[in-house]
User: Fold this.
Amino acid sequence: MNHKVVNGVNNKEKGVTVNLENGKDGKKSALNVDVVLLSIGRHAYTDGLQLDKAGLKADDRGVIHVNKTWQTDKPGIYAIGDVTPGPMLAHKAEEEGIAAIEHIMGEGGHVNYDAIPGVIYTDPEVAWVGKTEEELKADNIKFKKGVFPFSANSRARCN
Assistant:
């Protein structure tokens, strides 16, 4: 796969120029766009929770280690959502919370992480659920591909 690396972003009076470099041959190019969405990553905000008083530790990104039932290294203490490994999504935290409670009650909860939608709240919004075509191919999973033009979506047309 041929990737392009962003080497810089320059604001102009109208729009933005994104400086790119081809990951394969090093050839440089520029892309002029209206806006740029920049995401530098997130980390769990566990500072100030006094985890040490509960006998817990977080890694360098603030994540608390949990087992498959969301129990921490300290019996009786569970963690879900943004302070656990994986995407920081409200949908994920909600499902983990329900499953953790089911485990506490002895009912054996489960979370299907492939069925939790991801959303980027841009304009227009971007959302997805499940595995990508590339992931399915890599896992040798048979699938049927469907394509629907964004321009035919009524909300997209209204926006």
